[in-house]
């Protein structure tokens, strides 16, 4: 049975920093839930052994295709480029979803 996939709505491309200081990038329609899933060890295989993860960057999109393209572009960045992106983002953002003290 084929599952329908919603292509319009809210999609988030996000980056989490893992315990070992590496970054994982993904997309989801429910960012808060996705971070919780990662931290329960039921998320991506990559993050399961690198918990806890911390949300360090995200952006909202209204179309799946735009979010998917952004995820691919972010995954091509080097670690230092991702680190710089996070640094700029933290400077410009006062509140991050799921971030303690929010």
Keyword list:
102 residues, alpha+beta, GIY-YIG endonuclease, three-stranded antiparallel beta sheet, disordered C terminus
Protein described:
With 102 residues, the protein is an alpha+beta fold. It has a single domain (8-92), classed as GIY-YIG endonuclease (3-Layer(aba) Sandwich). The protein is built from four helices and three strands, in the order ββααβαα. Strands 2-1-3 form a three-stranded antiparallel β-sheet, with helices on both faces.
Please summarize what this structure is.
The chain has 102 residues and is α+β, with helices and mostly antiparallel strands. It is built from four helices and three strands; from the N terminus they run E-E-H-H-E-H-H.
Q: What's the average pLDDT?
A: 87
Question: What's the CATH H-level superfamily name?
Answer: GIY-YIG endonuclease
* Strand line-up of the largest beta sheet: 2-1-3
Number of strands: 3
Count of folded domains: 1
CATH class: Alpha Beta
- Largest sheet data: 3 strands, antiparallel
State the separation between the terminal residues, measured CA to CA: 41 Å
Topology, please?
Blueprint lengths: L7 E10 L5 E6 L2 H9 L5 H4 L5 E10 H12 L3 H14 L10
